User: Fold this.
Amino acid sequence: MRKFSFLLLGALLFCIQLIAQQRTITGKVTNTDGLPVPNASVIIKGLPGGTTTNTDGTFSIRLPDKAKSLLISAIGLSDMEVVVGNKGIINVSLQPSDKSLQEVVVVGYGSQRKSDLSTSVGKVSGNSLENVPLSSPDQMLQGKVPGLQSATFSGQPGANQQIRIRGVGSYTAAAQPLYVVDGIQINSGDLSRETTTTNVLAGMNPDDIESISVLKDAGATSIYGARGSNGVIIITTKRGKAGKTQFKASAEIGQNTHGDIPSIGMPLRSKDWLTLFKESLVNAGRTAGYADTLASTTYGDGSTDVDWLGLVTRVGKQQQFNLSASGGDQATKFFISGGYFKQEANVIGSDLSRYTSVINLDHSVSKKLSFSLNLAPSYTKQNTPLSNSSAFSNPVMEFYFLRSLQNPYNADGSLNINTTSKDFSSTYNPLYIVKNDIHIANTVAGNAKAGAKYNILDNLTLSSSLGFQYNSLEEYYYNNPFHGDGKGANGRGYAYNTRYSLYDFNSALDYKANLIKNGDLVLNAKVGYEAIQSRGYFVSAQSQNFPTPTLTDAIIASTPTIASNSGSDYTFASELATARLAYKNKYVLEGSFRRDGSSRFSANNQYANFASGSAAWYISKEKFMENVDFVSDLKLRASYGTSGNAEIGNYAWRQTLGYGLNYNGQPGGGFNNIGNDQLTWESSKQTNIGIDMSFLKGRLGLTVDAYRKIIDGLIFGVPTSQTIGFSTINKNIGAMQNKGIEVTIDATPVSIKNFSWNMSFNFTYNKNQMKTLPPNQFQVLNGSFVLRQGHDFYTFYLRDWAGVDPNNGDPLWYVDSSRKATTNNYNVAQRVATDKTATPKFYGGFSNTFTFKGISLQTDFYYNYGNYVQDGWAAYFYDEVNPSYGKYTYNLQRWQKPGDITNVPKPVYGATNFSSSASTRFLFKGDYIRLRNISLGYSAPRSLTDKMHINSFKFYVRGTNLWTKRYDKNIPFDPEQNINSQSNLNVFYNKAVTVGINIGF
Amino acid sequence: MQQMKIFMKLYIPIFIACMLLASCKKSFLDKKPYNANNLSTAITNETDLKVAVTGMYSGLRATDLYARTLPVKGDLMADNAYVTTANSGRYITLNNFAFNNTDAYAAGVWSNAYVVIKYANTIINTNLPTSAVVTQAQGEAYAVRALMHFELVRNFATAYTVDKTKPGIAIVTDFKQDALPPRNTVQEVYASVIADLEKAYSLMTQYRGTAYFSKYAARAIEARVYQNMGDWANAKTTALDVISNSGWAMLSSAAYVSPSTTTTPVTTAYSPGGYWANPAVQTSTKNETLFEVACDLASNNGFDQIGYIYLTVGGGYGDLLATQELASLYSATDVRKWLSPIGTRSGQSGTVYLCYKYPNPANGVDKDDIKVIRLSDVILIAAEAYYNSSDIANANLYLNKVAQQRDPAFAGYANTGVQVLEDILTERRKELAFEGSRLWDLIRLQRSWTKTKNQNPLTTVSVTPSSTALLYPIPVTELNANPNMSQNSGY
Assistant:
């Protein structure tokens, strides 16, 4: 008993002593707006011990006597050190940090603070993706990230977007970057088989996106191994944060109209069309009387003068509605959203509506174990008439091909489907087609991911996740029996079901060690494993001969013509590892390694190894920089590494006998794939040097990157002699190089009490050069382009137009590149590798935001310089080589009498001089500046929102693509075409005006 | 602590095992295509060989081979057809008699013919135990290979009768991935064609129907080849072999053509009836057709069927019309007149003659088959062979076999001297119109002619034996890939 009480006393005394040696400090952490900062870290400097603030910003911490000061830090805010002294309560107000280097950036398999990056990564935050009337987030990237070229080739809602990061990266393999959505390497792009263009990302609501990271240099992309060479775009959806549940609701409506069509590119109206037509007949040796008769009997007398533009375009409606809730506590966090988006194109018959939802959950079971769940289902409905050149039923094509003399209506007001030469003998009435044909693509899609994280030790974490992407497109195409493609077969119905399912399993061990006790030298290492499998499943059915136009599904038709299924799969199995060594966060060294095996690589050559190394030197943290006040941050980075491009065909390497070569009702097969058992991935080596600078306490930021990327093992369809029964064999044989400079300038020129002006300017210069072509090949033809050593990938290779002979109106071309002689014989003129390319010399964006109290005005310009655009359909719309079609207004400048100096030759009916065939005559400067966005918004002040019992209220008006300046007076259409700058009668680019409100409560 | 130890003991090894396992699981990285087999193991028995033979024939159905371009070329570049005013832009270069070295139709014939040769070589070079099926299959492959080399040499090279020492085309008998063959001479090519046809004749024993080659179909092609060579002795022997021994016969005039109406202009409901309106292949009968390329509902070229280029029925392009000169050759009692009746074509003024040899492109049950060689052609070859051996009596006899079969009221030809040749050529023109034959007759006999570009307003092109476009250009893609290949002059 005595022993026990003595012990008890001793314990008590010990406790009292302990208590006497400790005291409790409480406090509250807020930001400059006076709002509490939850989850801020409060550590005792130099001693173990710390805590985090509660959701209301308060904290309570036991301090030993020795403790002198507290270190308080939070993401997005500057760290602060507070001397404790004798205080019992410490209230701290944290300043906003220099945003540019403190924000968190998602990178491959992890995230880093921007200040810790040693690689070149561009980030677009979710804010700039909200309230934008574009149908997919990749469209919104244009002009936002230097080094990323994003081309919108069609104004069709939900159109695929062509993106190239640091130049064109491949010739045969796909050149699109790898898309990773919430850790899943998704099947992206246009998965449809019958629809002109669709986009997997159009099934994503940009409002649900937290951020997009664009990985550009090898240091960042090498961790994606054989798929990283074209750059990687990582999209991360929003997740909940602990705190009171925040609701956000937004609504937007507006309208879409067609983009500018230069007046010289407008088709001629009846009077002028007939004048030119008759003149061409006279020039062909006919009498004027004959010309008059032929014109009026074949096409009409001109009393019909239809404005096809008005008929084929419309004012489309635009609307979107979103609602989200985000919240949680220390253990569980959630983000739930739902959205509806509808966009009617500026051309008849084309629209998109989309329903999306995101449910993201995070739950900590204990300090050691946590798991997360992502669910993102979506449903997209698209109506798409054939919206590029493919067929006569494309309204845009008909707008150019039809004559104003063709009347879409009969005298009684019904739609005209007569097939006399005056009516629709070889072309179709687009109004009838849009009304009676069906062309839809419905996509049911969803991403799902379940992941778990286990902290084996404090510095050793195991995480695993299984992600799943599902895309099912139901495409249906119905041609009516009376007019158009279905006429001959009494109606046709095509039903295509295209289904892709992909799973991505990855597991990794993360290890962190303080190699020096005080935390000066930190090692982060990761070792992991990933397996990806994608299955494509395709079912096709086609029938014709319908009994009635009142029902349109193929089941009622009498004759099935296609009934088939097929599939296409690929797999990847990889091991990956990264390591990062940081000394005092001043010197950083990083490395990555990945080993990929894929079903796409031949069995002889199945595994690929990739590695990278990068380093960063945070110069501004050096002692000698301490007194340089005007430089607040200065960091130098360099990286070098390898990555690959594995977007080659799924089965391309196999030499096979294929089936489906049926004949006379019997199944047939033949040797139809030449294969190549040496075929494998393309690889790239990239060097990058970058510098990030920040001046005047963050008022001015400058980032410059210079890079050189050499792409090797480029797969070329090396032309073979066609006598072997093939025309090409794929070999990894070429090389090309992209080098360039990217510059970003962020500045806040004005920041006074109620007014601030932020601006952001970026500039990209990229030069592409072919380095190696297949052996014995001086050049490789690529349509209108040629690949030649030392030249840009998209070098135009055309006959060199020399104008029109003033004496007789003949078209002239230079005989060859020496330009010493001209000829009027198209066959004698040789094609020349011009100095004109489809690739721009430089491009970029320029944004300005002006804020006055609650009002903000933002303008975003996009500029593009140095490329040329080719009119791919010139043969039909210039001159009278094909007299029955529509003609550009430009043709009115034609040669009429000797002495005329003009660029339009003498129009001759049915001329066989190839004057409108491909040549540099139809290359136009693709330079332009476009006002991509101008928006005026008003955010209600606290006083007003408090009265309304909500957190925030914003109202905005926004104009998209309202103004464009072109620089070639002869270009007949908008300069923004494909990545390969060839026009293809796509839906016109979209101009939109929208108004909307955002409410947070 | 305990829990963690267990965890470490369990999970880490599992994790590492997974990593190692997956990299060892070969089958995970072995994904086979859904529609093909590895070439080396694809043909192992008779059934596989027959499948390969079927695949070879399907190659002949390429739009730029027999499905459209070859038959069209033979009439459009000659004096039988022209492109109408309101057209879809097809075959303009043929109509204008002007090609450049990127001409798509030329390139199409070149590449597709060599693809079929590749398929034929796969079959010929496969070693399977001999049997009736295997020898028949290989015999058919020899015949198809010969046919393709023959079409290539007469499209891309100087006619044998003009200069057989000129460059021909490359003879290909095996698959070599890196081959860059030069052009064999015209003489060498014809020699290999004859050798292949002789081999085919000796190997084949079965008649599988008109959609496949048979012994006598190969012989008939051989007769045609000798005709193009001007080798009349052999032309006569082979033609007579077919006529006497094959068991093939011509149809009666009523069975040949039986028009649905004789009121002109005809409407889109018109049918020529009889043999030409029947899209079915023959499986056991031997009427008229020795060999044809079969098209049916499941396997046809859609809008690229030859019927659609001649007719507007079913939404067809209707780009080609028959020339007045051709139509005026038929007498009032010649049933073949009803294969080019007067009709209408929007955008075309004047009298319009349509071609109705391919009336089934929109048929919901079966599609037109393209005749490659018919008995009447062989009979006329015999007539011409007799003429060239100065046997005028037999020349007229055989000539009249065809002429009087088609026109029962016709008294028969009875001319002498060089007029007989003209009669034969005229009869050939009347009989084989729209089957791609006319151009070759004109070229091998070194004729000049006026090609109609459009009937109304009448525009023409004058063609002489020295016109560049008599030969297709070797496609520029071939020349770029194969430095040993030379181009034809004028391109």
Notes: The longest strand of chain B covers residues 449-455. Chain B touches chain A through 98 residues (CB under 8 Å). The beta strands of chain B are 36-38, 81-83, 289-293, 320-322, 342-343, 352-353, 370-374, 449-455, 458-463.
